[in-house]
């Protein structure tokens, strides 16, 4: 089985009053192998976030099929969601909660038994253990991004998906994030990330799919793609 299999995925957003429906995904087909670091590359508006948000259960697809770790998201949503961790693009947090508290809430949400919780290990891995009791409003953008990565890993999913992980992030933090992503990959996690920077996909990913206007233009090993352009 693939890590993620997407078949003829279509998303039409409801039209604004008096407007036309927006076709965000126009028949996406993708097979993301287990064990890969896979880059979804494309310009703004290509449909990257929509694809990720469907995987995350945040957006309902119009039609098509999606399997995560072999589990169909319609027929087997519990197993599908247990198999994937999502790092969203937006840094939205409740200002009155701390990293330690958010990790516990997330673990509860995913039904991780108390004995199996890894708040300390995960917050240390993203270098936020010192900030575990700080209110989230006091965290920098980079810290929030790292907290989102730690949160996405609470249930130890085999697949981690990051939506534009380094958007608006400085060079030093970008390097740190990449290092951590590489480390997770080395330990066996399948990684999927979206980016609109070719250099980022090139540096990190073994396979790259280019999407535009809601369609897959190509999907191939990074070295083959680079040899062509
Ligand atoms: P990016 O290209 O960085 O993914 P977008 O500008 O496409 O960012 O979208 C940012 C957010 O705004 C997303 O959460 C998306 O769902 C939402 N959004 C984008 N376009 C529209 C739109 N036309 N109407 C309503 N929401 C939108
Ligand atoms: P990307 O992440 O590649 O920038 P998105 O998936 O955010 O692309 O957007 C794909 C298309 O769908 C864009 O044209 C965007 O404006 C539109 N879109 C995204 N979110 C919404 C939304 N919530 N409502 C309406 N249109 C949207």
UniProtKB/TrEMBL annotation:
Q: Which residues cross the membrane?
A: none
Q: Does the keyword ATP-binding apply?
A: yes
Q: What start-end ranges are recorded for coiled-coil regions in this protein?
A: none
Task: Name the domain of life.
Answer: Bacteria
> Which GO MF terms are attached to this record?
ATP binding; ATP hydrolysis activity
Residue ranges occupied by any ABC transporter domain in the UniProt entry: 4-229
The answer to whether keyword NADP applies is no
Q: Which UniProt keywords apply?
A: ATP-binding, Nucleotide-binding, Transport
Name the UniProt record assigns to this protein: ABC-2 type transport system ATP-binding protein
Which start and end residues of the full protein are shown? 5 to 233 of 324
């Amino acid at each position: 089985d693939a890590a993620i299999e997407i078949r003829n995925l279509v998303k039409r957003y409801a039209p604004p009053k008096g407007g036309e429906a927006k076709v965000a995904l126009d028949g996406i087909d993708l097979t993301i192998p287990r064990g890969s670091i896979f880059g979804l590359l494309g310009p703004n508006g290509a449909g990257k976030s929509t694809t990720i948000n469907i995987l995350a259960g945040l957006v309902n697809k119009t039609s098509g099929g999606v399997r995560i770790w072999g589990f169909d998201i319609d027929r087997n949503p519990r197993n599908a969601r247990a198999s994937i961790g999502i790092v969203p693009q937006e840094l939205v947090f409740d200002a009155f909660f701390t990293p330690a508290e958010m990790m516990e809430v997330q673990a509860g949400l995913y039904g991780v038994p108390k004995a199996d919780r890894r708040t300390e290990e995960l917050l240390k891995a993203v270098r936020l253990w010192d900030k575990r009791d700080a209110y989230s409003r006091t965290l920098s953008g980079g810290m929030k991004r790292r907290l989102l990565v730690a949160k996405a890993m609470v249930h130890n999913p085999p697949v981690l998906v990051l939506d534009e992980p380094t958007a608006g992030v400085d060079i030093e933090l970008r390097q740190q994030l990449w290092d951590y992503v590489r480390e997770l990959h080395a330990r066996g996690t399948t990684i999927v990330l979206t980016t609109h920077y070719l250099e980022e996909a090139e540096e990190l990913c073994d396979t790259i799919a280019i999407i535009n206007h809601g369609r897959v233009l190509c999907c191939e090993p990074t070295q083959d793609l680079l040899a062509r352009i």
